[in-house]
């Protein structure tokens, strides 16, 4: 069996899979932006322990970790804009030390592209682009059936290209990045701010705005949600 871990800007997820990649258990908790990476990783180890107890810890062969901004040459996170405390942190070193199991780490969007190519929407195609819209915007590239990562592992990442040269300052230090306008939190912020400024929407005022609600209202056509 294999443990799969995803460290996101909002959620940290742990799953245990069998050798056919069927998901046997899964759990997610908030990553804890104010926590130290060591504390978050200790929580991750606890989740692995609890979930693997039901299945048998001795049958786990290794751990695969996906995380944002992983420099594939050194396996550490490099200035992840949505996890500022994690700059330079080596998750694999911590997990290897705690569990004594082989650990493989990769850039989250690249691994998601690989997953979609092997088992999802891209199965059977030779070339594909994958984009994910969550706390940030990530991308991955498959060329001739193989993952193309580039020298550092960031090929296909578009979240921090500048789309508004005079726009807001991003966590990465640049100005007007795509992520500031098209990620989940930025879509919610755009609608919330416009509503505060008196724009009408079809969304209920009684519940906080969510990305899912904005997409649903947008697909119904027109209005502020489509504009954002
Ligand atoms: Zn940026």
UniProtKB/TrEMBL annotation:
Gene3D superfamilies: 3.30.420.40. Signal peptide: none annotated. PROSITE patterns: ROK (PS01125). SUPFAM superfamilies: Actin-like ATPase domain. Pfam families: ROK (PF00480). InterPro entries: ATPase_NBD, ROK, ROK_cs. This is ROK family protein. It comes from marine metagenome.
């Amino acid at each position: 069996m294999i443990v799969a871990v995803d460290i996101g800007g909002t959620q940290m997820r742990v799953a245990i899979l069998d050798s056919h990649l069927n998901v046997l258990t899964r759990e997610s908790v908030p990553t804890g932006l104010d926590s130290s990476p060591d504390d978050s990783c200790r929580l991750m180890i606890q989740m692995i322990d609890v979930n693997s107890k039901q299945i048998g810890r001795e049958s786990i062969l290794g751990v695969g970790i996906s995380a944002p901004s992983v420099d594939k040459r050194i396996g550490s996170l490099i200035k992840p804009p949505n996890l500022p405390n994690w700059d330079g942190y080596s998750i694999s070193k911590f997990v290897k030390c705690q569990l004594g199991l082989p650990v493989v780490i990769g850039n989250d969007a690249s691994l998601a592209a690989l997953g979609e190519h092997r088992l999802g929407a891209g199965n059977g195609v030779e070339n594909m682009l994958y984009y994910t819209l969550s706390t940030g915007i990530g991308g991955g590239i498959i060329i001739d059936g193989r993952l193309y990562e580039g020298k550092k592992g960031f090929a296909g990442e578009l979240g921090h290209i500048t789309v508004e040269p005079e726009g807001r300052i991003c966590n990465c230090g640049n100005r007007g990045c795509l992520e500031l306008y098209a990620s989940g939190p930025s879509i919610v912020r755009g609608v919330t701010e416009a509503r505060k400024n008196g724009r009408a929407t079809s969304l209920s005022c009684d519940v906080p705005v969510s990305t899912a609600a904005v997409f649903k209202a947008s697909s119904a056509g027109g209005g502020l949600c489509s504009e954002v």
